[in-house]
């Protein structure tokens, strides 16, 4: 019997037992759909992270306080950076374009009977260009505000809506920790960055933040949470990082481990990319377990099929069918079940990826490699788990089989 004839017989047998064939495919369908969906969502997370880091601003470097060990193990980092460090970087590092130090503090803000407990950022005028924020209405903090410790505030779009609703906030006064501030500007919507909503922040002058909100506790100067820096161009990023590190080591008189860290946009994106890739593989591996379970289901149903079709196998052998013919037919049945289940699973997986993209900020994509891998694995599982039932059918004694007729 040739392969074409075996294929026809296998197909007709599966069609004749639709319910059993469908239930056999179910595990393969779920496994393939899970693999496609998990890989697609993982790649969408990677794309979203890359876009969010690009939105931080071009050629950005972040100088963060604390040693590497402290940043890994401590929640509250030591305040090892001061405003004088930022000023020194701005004046003494030739590859740096702009510097924007900032102090972060969570505080209760109120307007009449409305309250918000969100982040207040004390910063300088350069923050706007360094971090690629844009003003929607009004103005941002200026140098006069910094020199005079002016009580002015710029609100993020969602924070403004929370405090003022649909009313124009410009010119209104809000209270931050019982200190009155005049609203002078409203930011354009920026969106979230790794779960941190950039539109629910308030921006006030750095000096006002230090002197009237958090206070100064360092004997070395005005403490800052971190320092944002932009290099002159993309080619200057590595040189800027090297020069900043050397300058701060001299200023802090460091002879051992650095009490700060300089991270480029690319460094952070590499770390996040490694994490998201690892999570994608983990999710795909977990989803792949269902493929194995589906394969075991194929083997179980095929073994039952062999038992049920004992008479058919004996009759075919009695009229001249060889062991190889029986083996090929049962293997083809197992592969068809797995392949068709794989295709249905891929279609469901693509639908799940599309739905995820429509209902979430992720931008998942369907990888052709993942599709080919799923189809190949499905067919391979059918072939692998179909061997035992096929061999049992092929080795069945025709005399014993015919006795049951």
TrEMBL record:
Which residue intervals define the domain MacB-like periplasmic core in the entry?
21-247
Any one Gene Ontology molecular-function term assigned to this protein's record: transmembrane transporter activity
Q: Which UniProt keywords apply?
A: Cell membrane, Membrane, Transmembrane, Transmembrane helix
Kindly list any coiled-coil regions of this protein.
none
Q: Which GO terms describe its cellular component?
A: plasma membrane
**Membrane-spanning residues where?**
21-42, 281-306, 326-350, 370-388
**The keyword Cytoplasm belongs to this UniProt entry's keyword annotation:** no
Identify its protein family: Belongs to the ABC-4 integral membrane protein family.
Q: What protein name is recorded for this chain?
A: ABC transporter permease
Q: Which organism is it from?
A: Hydrococcus rivularis NIES-593
From the broadest rank down, the organism's phylogenetic lineage runs:
Bacteria, Bacillati, Cyanobacteriota, Cyanophyceae, Pleurocapsales
């Amino acid at each position: 019997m040739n392969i074409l004839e075996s294929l026809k017989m296998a197909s007709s047998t599966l069609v004749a037992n639709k319910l059993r064939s469908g239930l056999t495919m179910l595990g393969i369908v779920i496994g393939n759909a899970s693999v496609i969906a998990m890989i697609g969502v993982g790649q969408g997370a990677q794309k979203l992270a890359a876009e969010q880091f690009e939105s931080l601003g071009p050629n950005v470097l972040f100088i963060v306080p604390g040693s590497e060990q402290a940043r890994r193990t401590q929640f509250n980092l030591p305040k090892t950076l001061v405003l004088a460090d930022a000023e020194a970087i701005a004046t003494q590092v030739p590859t740096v374009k702009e510097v924007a130090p900032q102090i972060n503090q969570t505080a209760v803000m109120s307007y009449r009977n409305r309250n918000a407990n969100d982040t207040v950022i004390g910063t300088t005028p350069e923050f706007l260009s360094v971090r690629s924020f844009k003003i929607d209405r009004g103005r941002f903090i200026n140098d006069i505000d910094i020199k005079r410790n002016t009580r002015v505030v710029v609100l993020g779009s969602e924070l403004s809506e929370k405090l003022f609703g649909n009313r124009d906030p410009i010119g209104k006064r809000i209270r931050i920790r019982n200190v009155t501030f005049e609203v002078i500007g409203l930011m354009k919507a920026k969106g979230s960055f790794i779960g941190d909503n950039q539109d629910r922040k308030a921006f006030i002058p750095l000096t006002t933040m230090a002197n009237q909100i958090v206070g100064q506790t360092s004997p070395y100067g005005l403490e800052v949470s971190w320092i944002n820096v932009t290099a002159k161009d993309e080619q200057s990023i590595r040189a800027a990082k090297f020069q900043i590190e050397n300058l701060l080591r001299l200023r802090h008189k460091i002879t051992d481990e650095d009490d700060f860290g300089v991270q480029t946009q690319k460094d952070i994106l590499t770390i996040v990319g490694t994490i998201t890739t690892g999570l994608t593989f983990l999710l795909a591996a977990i989803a792949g377990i269902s493929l194995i379970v589906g394969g075991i289901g194929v083997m179980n149903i095929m073994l039952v099929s062999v038992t049920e079709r004992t008479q058919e196998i004996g009759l075919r052998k009695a009229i001249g069918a060889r062991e190889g013919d029986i083996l090929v037919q049962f293997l083809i049945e197992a592969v068809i079940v797995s392949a068709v289940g794989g295709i249905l699973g891929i279609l469901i997986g693509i639908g799940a990826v599309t739905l995820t993209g429509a209902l979430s900020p992720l931008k998942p994509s369907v990888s052709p490699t993942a599709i080919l891998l799923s189809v190949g694995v499905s067919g391979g599982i059918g072939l692998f788990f179909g061997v035992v039932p096929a061999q049992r059918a092929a080795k069945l004694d025709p005399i014993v089989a015919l006795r049951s007729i």
